[in-house]
């Protein structure tokens, strides 16, 4: 009886340690990139953060917030941010390398300041994108991505992810 109990305790201990070595489906990340607007010349620096849940190896859901760009033209200053929710379809190419597609909904907020007056406007719509991710470890990955947050806007970014 004691021998069977010892074996059961050993198996339970091994399964707990095996579970501790794998990442959970929750992850967070941050990125930096470049935003291009059709009506503006030059690329603008962007940065953002996101959090997600990976349901399985082929599907995840993410929420994100990104500062798309800030521009000053004479006395006019415009600041554009993006809040989004997306579904990701994931194709594992290897254990470490994944290709993903993004389809979601986003709200782009434009805050403008002209001679001390502040004006803001929102535009909501579809968000789509494609990207690749490389997992260095079960917890840490790197990502390259292209997003289209509006019909006249493109964003390219590089970021890191951390699963906990």
Order of helices and strands: HEEEEEEEE
* Biggest pleated-sheet summary: 8 strands, antiparallel, barrel
Total strands = 8
Identify low-pLDDT runs: 12-21
Our count of helices gives 1
Q: Tell me the number of structural domains.
A: 1
CATH class annotation:
Mainly Beta
Category by helix and strand content:
mainly beta
- Read across the widest sheet, the strand sequence of neighbours is 1-2-3-4-5-6-7-8
What is the level-2 CATH architecture name?
A: Beta Barrel
The helicity comes to: 10-25%
Query: Beta-strand percentage?
Result: over 45%
Under CATH, the topology can be stated as Porin
Q: What does the oligomeric state look like here?
A: single chain
Spatial separation of the terminal alpha carbons: 39 Å
InterPro entries: Beta-barrel_OMP, OMP/PagP_B-barrel
Protein name: Outer membrane beta-barrel protein
Pfam family, one: OMP_b-brl
Subcellular location: Cell outer membrane
